[in-house]
Structure formats: C-alpha cells, structure tokens
Amino acid sequence: MADDASTVGGPEGLGGPGMGGCGGFCGGFGSGIQGQGRDRGRGRGRGHGAHRGKVEDKEWIPVTKLGHLVKDMKIKSLEEIYLFSLPIKESKIIDFFLGASLKDEVLKIMPMQKQTRAGQRTRFKAFVTIGNYSGHVGLGVKCSKKAATAIRGAIILAKLSIVPVWRGYWGNKIGKPHTVPCKVTGRCGSVQVHLIPTPGALAESQPLYPRSC
To answer: How many domains does the chain have?
Structure first.
C-alpha cells in the first residue's frame, strides 16, 4: 500500500510537492479548503471602473477616400470639396477644417409619441444648428430614446449638412461682405422666411425674438 501511495502522490505520498499537498484535487466545490481556486475571479476588472467616466480623444482614422485625402493634406479647404460636389460622409472632415471656430445651438427638443401594442413609445427629437459665423451653416435633426443621444446625433448630422453661404454687399463694395447678395426666400412646411440685404452698419432685418423652430 505504501508503494501505491507513493506512485499516486509522488515521492511524498498523496500530498507530494507536485500536487500542492492534496493530490491535485484542492480548491474544488465542497472541498472545505478556502483561498484556493475560488478567489481567482474576484479581483479581476476592479481597476477598469475608475476610467469609465473619462473620454479620451482618439486619433482620427479615415474610412472614406475623401477622408484620406483630407488627412494627407491633398485637399486643403472645404471650398475644394464644394467645388466638385463631393459628398461628406465623416463629421471629422468638418472638424479638421472648422473645428476651433464651430458653434452649435440646440433650437428645440420635442417629445415624439408612437402608439404600439405594448403602449405609447416616447422618443425625443432634437433640432441643432451649427456654424462658424463666417459663411458656413448646417442644420441637423435626430430622434432618439434619450435627449442627450438625440442632441449628439443631431450635431453630427448638422456637421455633415454644412453648406457655404454666399455673402455680398448692400450698396457700395466697401470692406468685407456683410449681408446676403440679393433677396432670398425659403420655405419649410407652413413657415416662410425672407432675407433682405441690409447695410453693414445695421443688424439683420428680424424681430427681437425670432422663432427658433
């Protein structure tokens, strides 16, 4: 029997040095030995929670051909993109050219309800405008379950829809362009907007509290 024990457990019997003192069956369920085998997963992942709230700016990796041309400095301005009517599919392209000067404003956030079999489903619709006060403006509309998500999506869509604004003069061509070159009319639904050229010393012809949306 002694020879059998030494054969199974090594030179020191069932609890040989190669088996951790218990034949390789320690730390299992119902073994009654604590601290071996059960605490392996308790400490994993504890250090990752402290960094969840921090958002790091990652390097822009283009995914479109236009993005690669912009990052390689082969396209040096937005006017070159507008000249050939190239579609902009990445918002980072706008950030690359106008990132520091862009200003965004949330025009309106309205709840949207849809009747389903399970009840009413409520979502939020955000209207965001963005521009650089120097001839570029865009409008984005996004609907989502959360208002913050809708605003972020509307900002991205507003960047993708940025268009150049043709500016001109009223009267003599003195100084920089300060107004629209001619009378412009736009309509969306039941709302109609008229833009009329004004002198450079005056503000735009609009009421004190215009409607945002």
So the answer is: 2
